[in-house]
Amino acid sequence: MSKLTEAISFRLTQDLSKSAAITYDNMRSYYEHYGVGWQESKILEQIVDLDNWDILCDGQLIGALRLSFDGDSCWLRDLQIIKDFQNKGIGGAVLAEAKRRVEESGAYRLMLKVFKISPAYRLYDKFGFTLTNEDDRFYYMELDVIKKSEKL
Questions:
Q1: CA dist., res. 49 & res. 73, Å (int)
Q2: What global pTM score does this model have?
Q3: Which residues form the N-acetyltransferase domain (predicted)?
Q4: According to the model, what pLDDT value does residue 150 have?
Q5: Domains within the chain, CATH numbers bracketed
Q6: pLDDT digit string (tens) for 3-29?
Q7: How far apart are CA 98 and CA 96, in angstroms?
Q8: Within 10 Å of residue 33's Cβ, how many Cβ atoms?
Q9: Based on CB atoms within 10 Å of each CB, which residue in 11, 19, 100, 134 is the most buried?
């Protein structure tokens, strides 16, 4: 673990508007590429009922983690890290935290969808997510956090 990833912590999101702005800044090029007309206000509408966490580095807000639980499964709705902190190992640390939260909840599977043109696909693949489906825009991936047989 690097010194930077050791400095990572999480707290319940304190400002959903700021969190939505991080998502919009990171995702704008994908929205434009696919002709999705989302604005920050639309993102805010979509995240208000999720399990929202601020990602901090030495107390500074650097990203957002969003989860939604559905029975035995959890959806990773967002993993956003501001550009200055990307490609420094933080994504893996955030995924480990998401996995921990899924285990703690009793769910056994972590699922996500990622734009096909997103470099984040490589992070998810490296972390152990498997491709389960795809369409023209997205890869759908999942990670067995706890084997279903172990849960029984």
A1: 17
A2: 0.91
A3: 8-146
A4: 58
A5: 3-151 (3.40.630.30)
A6: 777 899 999 999 999 999 999 999 999
A7: 5
A8: 11
A9: 19
Is residue 110 helix, strand or coil? Answer: strand
Cβ atoms of residues 34 and 137 within 8 Å: yes
Look at residue 80 and tell me whether its pLDDT is greater than 80: yes
Q: Residue with structure tokens 């999720």?
A: 50
> Angle of helix 16-34 relative to helix 40-47, nearest 10 degrees?
120
Encode pLDDT of 44-76 as tens digits.
Answer: 899 999 999 999 999 999 999 999 999 899 999
* β-pairing verdict for 130-134 and 138-144: antiparallel
**Is 31 exposed, middle or buried (CB count within 10 Å of its CB: 0-12, 13-18, 19+)?**
middle
Quick one: which of 79, 73, 93, 81 has its CA closest to 142? 73
Q: Could you give the CA distance from residue 132 to residue 139 in angstroms, rounded to a whole number?
A: 8
- What was the pLDDT predicted at 149? 52
Residues 6+ apart with CB under 8 A from 63: 22, 54, 55, 79, 80, 81, 82, 85, 90, 94
